[in-house]
Amino acid sequence: MHTMRFLLLIGTVLLLPAVYSTVQAQDSAVEDSVAVENSAAVSDETAADGDKSAAFQERLTLARQINDVRPAANQIDTAIDAIAMNVPLAGRDAFKSNMRNLLNYRTIEKISINAMAETYTVPELKAMVDYYSMPEAISAQKKLEEYQRKVEPEIIRMIDAAVMQMRTGAAQ
Q: Is the Cβ–Cβ distance between 13 and 25 less than 8 Å?
């Protein structure tokens, strides 16, 4: 159940499919992880559809700037820390360490940067760079973990109740 909760949190913070693929790749075999690392989805210079245009390169540069001011790794660590709050204290540090060791941060970062470059327009990316560089946005980002600690238990409680209801067919 902890893995499901962890994946839900990562999905809300970053990219659920990217993390799921990465975890699956590392669980199945080293070769699979290497295949993900070398796939077009994580290429440094080419979009998944093969786009190498100047426009894509500009979007890629802006996406990297966003990652510099709002690193994917920090978002992942925040999510791990938040979900670890639901793990008994005795196993919490081991849980966080294991999760951090299982995830390939570099691959997730590449996937995130490429996805931004493929998804957003130049004006949107510029606005995001401007926003995430603002002192107010930096301050808000630092408060995200506190916010998640307040909201997350209720979300998890509701999800657990819904899963139990689905399994048992019982009405609330």
A: no
Answer yes or no: is pLDDT of 153 > 60: yes
Q: Are 11 and 19 in contact (CB under 8 A)?
A: yes
- Amino acid at the residue 57: Q
| Whole-Å CA distances, 73 to 1, 41, 129 | 23, 18, 17
CA 90-96-97 angle, to 5 degrees, is 100
- In angstroms, the CA 92 to CA 154 distance is 20
> Whole-angstrom Cα distance, residue 47 to residue 32?
20
Quick one: the chain helix, strand, coil %, rounded to 5? 80, 0, 20
pTM value is 0.59
pLDDT above 90 as % of the chain: 50
Amino acid at 109: E
d(C-alpha 81, C-alpha 95), whole Å:
9
